[in-house]
Automatic annotation (TrEMBL):
It comes from Streptomyces koelreuteriae. Residues 116-125 have a biased composition (Low complexity). Keywords: Membrane, Transmembrane, Transmembrane helix. Residues 1-76, 103-151, 334-378 are annotated as: Disordered. The chain crosses the membrane at residues 81-99. Residues 23-32, 39-58, 334-350 have a biased composition (Basic and acidic residues). Signal peptide: none annotated. This is Uncharacterized protein.
Length: 378
């Protein structure tokens, strides 16, 4: 009898044993996790023969273990394991966020919870504002949040708030000369209002070094004011200073906002106008944790004159005019220091005679000689 069926296809008995063995080795690992299937008679016969070979120690390599996976398969396995671990972590995170959405930064679900997002910083001021800043949340400043409830919360920190305009030539004055004047003006503002030594009442040497010693009377008047402050000679007209025996700064940040412009000067140089407001959070030096703020606005007109045509010192500024306005400092005290008032110790029996002003309103022109009044906010 022929071993070949009538349809012309080979029967299982015609397939060599080594082919069946290879087939079994290649497919065992793939079918191990699938639903069990009844093997054919030929497959059972080969499997039984391989089992007997295993008992005699004649099992071919890879029979029970399967072929060694190539390197690419091992890498893929590690990726799958990693994604599984990440998947578990993501699931846990989703569950936590579902219970407390405020844990996500920026309050993406619009829960409106307090502190859901930090106030965004304002862009640099490039022109005079048309009105005062809008109302802020009525929060009380604390040691941890000294600018809470203040428009200055969105202002730049310290020196970062003094952004110089792009220098350009002005008439015969070169671009480099204009840039020098702008940098000197910034140096003066920083040294007079932001330098920690100046703010704690020390002599502002760095600021004085920017001023031209040949300008008649200026340095003499400032030195007199620093040495023997009085109503006539008041260092606060140029410098921001607190008495260290009375006041301590809260943190190391002073908020700053303003702008700087330039034009052709009257002494063959470049004239610079600086208009900046500084906000100082402070506390008492006696250990009290009550926090308040003093706000100082300064308008300063200086010129870097041409030393080849005028009797000036190269690299020093000539001050043409300077003015200031202070919010939240005791009136009629002329000892050379700012004296902020705290909500807990304001004298309720004394009513200021001056106008009520918003110290954050940078849209107004400073009123020279205005009487001491009341600030609407600090």
């Amino acid at each position: 009898m022929s071993d070949k069926p009538s349809d012309g296809h080979p029967s299982a008995s015609d397939i060599p044993d080594d082919v069946w063995e290879q087939f079994t080795r290649d497919t065992e690992r793939d079918i191990r996790g699938s639903a069990p299937k009844e093997p054919s008679a030929r497959a059972r016969m080969v499997t039984e023969r391989l089992r007997l070979q295993e008992e005699r120690g004649e099992v071919p390599p890879g029979w029970r273990t399967g072929p060694v996976p190539p390197e690419s398969n091992r890498r893929a396995g590690r990726r799958r394991t990693l994604w599984t671990v990440l998947g578990v972590a993501v699931a846990v995170t989703v569950a936590v966020v579902a219970l407390k959405p405020s844990l996500l930064p920026g309050d993406p679900f619009g829960t409106g919870e307090s502190g859901a997002g930090e106030a965004s910083s304002l862009p640099a001021e490039t022109a005079a504002p048309t009105s005062a800043p809008g109302a802020s949340d009525p929060e009380t400043p604390t040691l941890d949040k000294p600018f809470a409830g203040s428009p200055a919360l969105r202002w730049a920190d310290g020196e970062a708030g003094i952004v110089l305009p792009e220098a350009k030539a002005v008439g015969a004055v070169s671009k480099d000369r204009v840039e020098q004047a702008l940098k000197l003006t910034k140096k003066l503002l920083v040294a007079a209002n932001l330098d920690p030594a100046t703010v704690r009442g020390e002599r502002p040497e760095a600021a004085l070094d920017v001023l031209d010693p040949k300008q008649p009377g200026l340095l003499d008047n400032l030195n007199t004011a620093l040495r023997s402050p009085s109503d006539k000679h008041d260092p606060l007209t140029m410098f921001s200073r607190f008495d260290p025996d009375e006041i301590r700064p809260v943190g190391d940040v002073i908020k700053t906002r303003g702008r700087m412009t330039f034009e052709k000067g009257s002494h063959a140089g470049v004239a610079v106008r600086a208009d900046y407001t500084f906000v100082y959070p402070v506390m008492r030096a006696d250990g009290s944790t009550e926090v308040t703020r003093t706000i100082v606005r300064r308008v300063l007109d200086v010129e870097l004159a041409d030393p080849t045509r005028y009797r000036v010192t190269e690299g020093r500024l000539t001050v043409r005019e300077y003015d200031e306005e202070v919010g939240n400092s005791a009136c009629d005290v002329h000892d050379g220091y700012l004296h902020p008032e705290f909500p807990s110790n304001r004298d309720k029996g004394t009513d200021p005679t001056g106008p009520t002003t918003d110290p954050y309103d940078r849209s107004k022109v400073l009123d020279d000689g205005a009487p001491c009044g009341t600030v609407t906010r600090t």
